[in-house]
Amino acid sequence: LLPPEVRTQVIRQVGAVLAPGGYFCTYMVAPNCWSQKARAFLGEAGEFFGRPQARWVLLNAPPAKVFIFK
Fold this sequence. Notes:
Helices cover 40% and strands 24% of the residues.
């Protein structure tokens, strides 16, 4: 997971190049998706892009959660 300053930079750069109506997709594997850094990333990305759609991919090893920001 990214340091705070890198996290902010990545989110802003993705937002700058994302086409209108585009999607930003990311994923996190369990158990990392419950960490403080993961929550901070999702919170900051949510402030920038809005609330994501999320779903588990249980067939992945380890299971992963996919987040889609529109």
